Amino acid sequence: MSEITSKTNTGRFFEDFRLGETIVHATPRTVTVGDVSLYTALYGTRFAVQSSDAFAKAIGYPVAPVDDLLVFHIVFGKTVPDISLNAVANLGYADGRFLKPVFPGDTLSTTSEVIGLKQTSGGDAGIVYVRSIGRNQHNEIVLSYARWVLVRKRRPGTPAEFELVPELPKSVAPEALGEGCPPLHPAAYDDALSGSPFRWGDYRAGERIDHVDGMTVEEAEHQIATRLYQNTAKVHFDAYGARETRFGKRLIYGGHVISLARALSFNGLGNAFHIAAINAGRHVSPLFAGDTVFAWSEVLEAAEVPGREDVGALRLRLVATKNLPCNEHPLKHADQYADGVILDFDYWALLPR
Amino acid sequence: MSEITSKTNTGRFFEDFRLGETIVHATPRTVTVGDVSLYTALYGTRFAVQSSDAFAKAIGYPVAPVDDLLVFHIVFGKTVPDISLNAVANLGYADGRFLKPVFPGDTLSTTSEVIGLKQTSGGDAGIVYVRSIGRNQHNEIVLSYARWVLVRKRRPGTPAEFELVPELPKSVAPEALGEGCPPLHPAAYDDALSGSPFRWGDYRAGERIDHVDGMTVEEAEHQIATRLYQNTAKVHFDAYGARETRFGKRLIYGGHVISLARALSFNGLGNAFHIAAINAGRHVSPLFAGDTVFAWSEVLEAAEVPGREDVGALRLRLVATKNLPCNEHPLKHADQYADGVILDFDYWALLPR
Amino acid sequence: MSEITSKTNTGRFFEDFRLGETIVHATPRTVTVGDVSLYTALYGTRFAVQSSDAFAKAIGYPVAPVDDLLVFHIVFGKTVPDISLNAVANLGYADGRFLKPVFPGDTLSTTSEVIGLKQTSGGDAGIVYVRSIGRNQHNEIVLSYARWVLVRKRRPGTPAEFELVPELPKSVAPEALGEGCPPLHPAAYDDALSGSPFRWGDYRAGERIDHVDGMTVEEAEHQIATRLYQNTAKVHFDAYGARETRFGKRLIYGGHVISLARALSFNGLGNAFHIAAINAGRHVSPLFAGDTVFAWSEVLEAAEVPGREDVGALRLRLVATKNLPCNEHPLKHADQYADGVILDFDYWALLPR
């Protein structure tokens, strides 16, 4: 006698979120040098601090820290089964702060607090705002960020019981930027080995940099990456199911685009070794396998980090495009994003002074 | 002056196997956190015990053990050059027992004993039964399983000298299921972190679970996986040679399907963290790149493990399909496997009580 | 106010190289077990010494050394942004010597000395000869090799100020072959575990070995490999830009072919565990995704290594083809390479005696 039961996770709908509740996400994850190698192999990232134990030790780290975006993707991946399995769209990020370096051997886990709820005018979905917090095995916060997603309602038309749109900063204040970076010895920071002669003081607000190179993405690559992060969003993996969707094919995880663009940005920003904060991020348009990603950056602001003589911060807008070289720095026409733009990402990076 | 010699391995034919002989397979392999990362990236597996050192330590492991199927694939891969290079088909598995956990840093090697030989009626091939045993660097057995394969004869028509069909159990007895699992502290097993509230006592024989998600497979993925296991079966790698074969293209290693289905089964069986035994396995039909794999499970039996209060065992039938969602639990029509079914795998899993 | 600046690396042109200058290349790289796993997964290499800590320790290594070609690719990758970003062609290698084993945890960095310059008759490019040296974190040389590349001139027609073609040995002398290999205990070298009964004394000059198996290459695979080596040559990654090139598609890194052929050569040369030297190498013709690689070897010379009773050296010509099985050992017709030949690689390997 067979009995069909439902022990599978169907994900939460808009009505299932309660303001103020904290969700403990599944599958803690020990980050290892294996993950670091895969991250290098998937993006070709070349920042010396994350690439070399010897380089990292010389400037003050105990060993090479794990790439900040690898930390982000792992912390983020855990939230998917609980937050965004029934999401229509990932709307934005704010107030992301990297607060402790992560090293191989650390175990990451994630919780999310529901910090806002707002139904849309159509009534069949609502916006869920969460603050997700990644911690290491010592229960220290390594990453904190806010995200909001458009989530389907279980029963379209149900009115929301509470509505609250949280206040989130447009950008993280410079005071908060140094926590994820130990005190460094800038004199020991070797510009020949790092691959760029340009330090913090060499960049100016308004400066634009075309990162020149293009990187074509394959299905196997983004699937391998997204599974590495234990991100289960089915749109990235199920070509059979995707036939019936708007695009007719698998969609590439937005975080994959961020990592590709960041790796390309080494060419021009080779000393911007640490992402201290994520101010905002928008996935303007989807990326598909076979597309080629290009990127450019604009320096939005240069800031001292209070109390730090070793490093300074650059607020950078990182723009990624598909099948469109960035020598003309494409962004917007009037208020519309230009064709080909896929990512508009606003973050703070630290550079040695 | 050139001389053409034959130092290459042409594999054994049916006549080359002797009943009772033990074959020492080549290439011992140290399993590392690099392999673990690749395994995660290839399948997206999310069982907390194997994913997190912190979680594993809390319940009683020294560190996170290596996924049982990764151990299986590595132990199995070594047998290919000696056992199945001239195989026509992999017919079955039985009496597979995982007897010691494997941890990163352990070195695995494999031997196989020929435990049965039987020629087929056609006379151009025969069935070879082997018991393959994987050992760690301390010479401790970590895995033992029986397998039988249809192997071509060197000279079709040669009669077999001996014939013996070994007796193999239909399923492994519950007494043998605890050896690969140290004593655990079920109270320290955190269901929020593991991702499932369902423990051993929550499952009933007869219960069926659709694992919902689909995973599309790419050529690069199965090749990377199969090479990781140092499995040299050329049908998986040589598209040029495959043009002349029945399918005209590369075949995906059957073990890749088992791992995909097992990873999908997390959704519904999130606490079935350890494969204690493989009772039987059949690759019903081949998988090719581009296909999307779905899976469902049936609980065949729930058993206590003698002497263990910490864990219980579920005997599970894991069925995988291609391009066929499993909400209707497809398996057989009359005695024939239904179209789309590719794997029928019978195993024992342990869950915390 | 935006300002467009040029902080990106545009690479050196022929005129930018000065005879005798030493270039320090960017991005030191700690090699880990993660890299080793990926290397295994990308090529399926099975040499026991590099695969097993237990095997390596038994014969005299502290742990399993990193595959020599993985070391080569990482050391080589660092030179690309400085040496060959504007290269038209990679012309050759000589005098490559592996001088210290590399172990997981070692950090590699590379410098190159310009040892020769020669303009071509056309006047729009010139040949740059460099000696590249890879060092570990103790500043010990692990690899030294000469390479020459055809590099575009910034201003076609500019005459070269100096011209010097360096003298390079046709092959590395046997005296230099033992440095990368510690003293071994050949009695502890287990031929069953290594997968080949043939030791150094079993090979004869003139002997040819077809390695039989074929390996089809996917775009995702060669991109993952080439990024793992932090090799930034855009021809391997940018399908969009490649549309306008002679081939219309991405080119596979030549080193990927060497590693594929070397891994295939295990079948026939299973005890040739260490590459001691690279005498010469020519990428005869390009490889593209979808092609299937085959390989064969010729023993050019067998030599004792002075002072060593434990190992002997074979000078091997390793030939790779695409979409062409090697049972007839294709190489040249008259003086022309035969159709399908893609690699002609001359190296010294060590085998136990």
TrEMBL record, chains A, B, C:
<dbReference type="GO" id="GO:0016829">
    <property type="term" value="F:lyase activity"/>
</dbReference>
<dbReference type="Pfam" id="PF19315">
    <property type="entry name" value="MC_hydratase"/>
</dbReference>
<dbReference type="InterPro" id="IPR048274">
    <property type="entry name" value="MC_hydratase"/>
</dbReference>
<dbReference type="InterPro" id="IPR052342">
    <property type="entry name" value="MCH/BMMD"/>
</dbReference>
<protein>
    <submittedName>
        <fullName>L-erythro-3-methylmalyl-CoA dehydratase</fullName>
    </submittedName>
</protein>
<dbReference type="InterPro" id="IPR016790">
    <property type="entry name" value="Thiol_ester_hydratase_Rv0216"/>
</dbReference>
<dbReference type="InterPro" id="IPR029069">
    <property type="entry name" value="HotDog_dom_sf"/>
</dbReference>
